[in-house]
Amino acid sequence: MRKTKSGFTIVELLIVIVVIGILAAITVVAYNGVQDRAKRTSQQAQVDAVGKAIKLYVAEKGKLAGDIAGSAGAWIGSFNSVYAGTSVSMKTVLENAGYLVGSSAGSDYLVALCTDANDNRRVVMTRFTDPAPTQTVVEQLTGSGCNTGAGSLVELYSNSSYTRNYARVY
Fold first, then answer.
1. Which residue in 22, 97, 123, 169 has its CB near the most CB atoms, within 10 A?
2. Which domain holds residue 58?
3. Per-residue DSSP letter, 83
4. 2 within a domain of the structure (yes/no)
5. Looking at the predicted structure, is the pLDDT value of residue 96 above 90?
6. Sign of CA dihedral 92, 96, 98, 102
């Protein structure tokens, strides 16, 4: 009587290894996609928090002026900066008023006029890097009524050394 060998052949083992490798690759790609979406959602939520805080401030105070914050007191420019002629940043004003609670710490936002200084709407802009937005800032603001043409702050902040690529109107 002859003994038969039991076990797997090398071909069977290679097939199993290849299948496991393919499944692992699919899992890694899917996981990275989920991470990118989660990062983008978090960034958008932070921009929304800043924009909504500005809207709440306007609702209570009636306007965004009074030489309080921003460049020339007009609530434009860098969100975290204190400009000449003002005593605090826009971020500090909104935090002190209770409209913003640390959600924007360390973030690099720029605030631009939507149309002119009499318009209380502001465009909050930031830079998303990974993944970058698929639309330009002008495309994102289409239909908002905001000035995005040559000479506007939106155009300056998106095309110059500021390179902001995400914008929302509030």
1. 123
2. 11-169
3. P
4. no
5. no
6. positive
